[in-house]
Amino acid sequence: MVRTTSNPLLVSVKLVRALLLAIGVTLLVGYAASAEGIDITQLKADAQKGYASRQIELAAAYFTGNGVTQDAKQAAYWYQKAAEAGDPEAENEIGFFYQAGIGVPVDQARALHWYQLAAASGLTRAKVNLGVVYVWGLGVAKDEDLAMQFFREAASRGDGAAASYLGDLYYFGIGVKQDKAAAETWYKTGAQFHDPVAAYNLGTLFSVDADHPHDLRKAEAFLRSSAADGYIPAIHSVGLLLVNHPDLATSPQEGPSLLETAASAGYWKSSVVLGALARDGKGVPADSKAAYLHFRTAVLQGGELAMSLVKYDLATLAKRLGTQQVGALDSDANTWYRLHRTPLLFVNKDSDKRQRFPASALAVSTAGLHAGQLLYVPAS
Prior knowledge:
mainly alpha, Sel1_AlgK, Sel1-like, Serine Threonine Protein Phosphatase 5, Tetratricopeptide repeat, TPR-like_helical_dom_sf, about 60% helix
């Protein structure tokens, strides 16, 4: 997720949530609950008997490699089995799999079919996903009015994500006349419904939006609320806020620690900030090796955009460290990146739904053709 200081919500509509449109998705490893105590043999037996709840559990296990060999095709197979049995959440999830091409070929028509079935069963989040489909025209003619209708219906039922999307539409004037005051009202509604993205958007308005009055205390409260729900961009933003305003931190290490969390989740901007802190000795001991490692990791995570920001620093630090140390640090960065390759949108979400539908934690890459086209709604 990328936000700019000149227009902090510029990519909100595009990157807010995780529709993995790019082909070749790297699966999330170890996100679901530990396999300890899970009887995979019994789980498979129950799933084969047609118990939808157990089919969903088995699908999640295959998606994360939790007690079984990681297998996206098997995950899709078992989610579809549960969907065919009429489980609305499974219908919504397999719709996402077809939309994103996870374990099945991309098929927008099937995605729409499953979203429609889930919505007809009363699943509010499926209505939100239908709104997303019509906002972008994914396999259908673009229809912003219909999208707005779906979002309003879902928001009227207390869905915070729908309220947040309505805020985005008003903020950018998509399908409606641009009205940033109305956008803020919808973000506030979303935050009241405990949507972390809505809270994050409010925190952004109060901290970096050039067209909105700033209030760091309000920004801190909204961003901390979003971060408490595990929303990675908010975790980064709180960390950055505390580094720049240490009087707001509960401890000297709180800011750097939050940035480490976000960096570990694949947020390359946090890696850049950590590199700068180590380079300058700000809040942490000055350490050229640590700075180089963070900058190098940022490049692996963020590609050309990250390189454009840290190229000079990498070259300067490389001269200081020498070829041998640079080679060892490059190897360390590559090893670390292999273990943290999949970018996440959420962390530390241990709810039952997150365990049963772990794909909701995934985020699109911040580089590439489809970066930022997002909008899939998590399961909970």
